[in-house]
Every structure is written in structure tokens, then in C-alpha cells.
Amino acid sequence: MKYDAVIIGSGLGGLECAHILSKAGMSVLLLERGTQAGGCLQSYRRHGLAFDTGFHYVGGLDEGQSLHSAFRHLGLLRLPWQRLDNHFDRVTIGNQTFSFAQGYDAFVETLTAAFPAERDALNKYADMLKQCGEQQFDALNPQTGESSLLSRLFETSAYQYLTETFHDPLLINVLCGCLLYTSPSPRDDLSSRMPSSA
Questions:
Q1: For strand 81-83 and strand 193-195, is the pairing parallel, antiparallel, or unpaired?
Q2: DSSP assigned state of 102
Q3: How far apart are CA 89 and CA 109, in angstroms?
């Protein structure tokens, strides 16, 4: 049999590619050497204990937020997601703990309380996260053209971006605690969720 695409490995990237290509009408063969698909997304039990090795929680799933369209396209919005509390991400450095609040405005306000001189930079950072969420799929579409923001960011390390944007070394370290992995959602009342175990 002939295939339009052969994908080796059924981790998250392989599964996503296979789904997207097959949804676009391509004939796809997905190969996996293991006994189970999922790569690092799998959980396993050892000595009676359960271990989750990959996906734990995600933010930005509500309509208009950064991951909604991707999760809708992949059919993942049908999962039984459970909302987490507003300050579920915390970074502790020394004896200080800093919360990453849900929602762009709450994210900025919470960190501004600890770093008032960095308000403008925090707003700039939140705007960058919001734009990245809005433009994330443009980079995959050759008809969209090149995004100047995404092009600049692809050429810049996360640490370089942070040190060019912020002056307070403690705040830079706090933001490195979730290093651009956290993308606060655009609305305070809508945000991070995790799959239910039920």
C-alpha cells in the first residue's frame, strides 16, 4: 500500500501530525515501536504508584484563548477538563513565593504587586504572550506570510528576551520558573484546566 505520509513515532508530535494530515485527506501510516501510543504522554504504574510522565495541565482552552482552536482541531475539547484554581502555578525562590495568576490582567497585577517598577515590562510580556497565542498557527500556514513577532522570537532565546525586557533579576528568575511555558489566558474568569481522572 502507498501512503502520502509515513510518520515514525506516536508521541504527541507524531499523533498530532497524523491527525492533522489525515483530517486534510491524506493517507497516513503512523509507526510505533512500543506496545502503546503516546510517548511521554503515557502514565504508568510501578510498585503500586501511578506516574504521569507528560501532560498535566493546560491553560487557554476557552473560546478566543490561545489553545482553543488547536484543541478543537485535534478533537481534544471533548475531554472532561476540570478548571484549576486561579493561582495554580507558583515559583518559590529562597523564602519568597510568587504566583502566576490566570488571565493576562491578573497575571500582570499579581506580579506587579511584588515588582511595581516592572509594570510596563510585565504588560509588554503579557501582550507578547497574547500575540503568540493569536499567531501560533500562522507560522504553519505558508499562505499567511511571515509574522514579524514570531520571526523575531524564533531568533531570540527565552532568556535573552527576558533580560532585554526586564531589569529585575529576581523577576527574570521567577519568569524562568515557568519559562514561556505558561501562557496566561486572556480573561480572568476563564483559564487553565486539567483533564479529569474520572
A1: antiparallel
A2: S
A3: 15
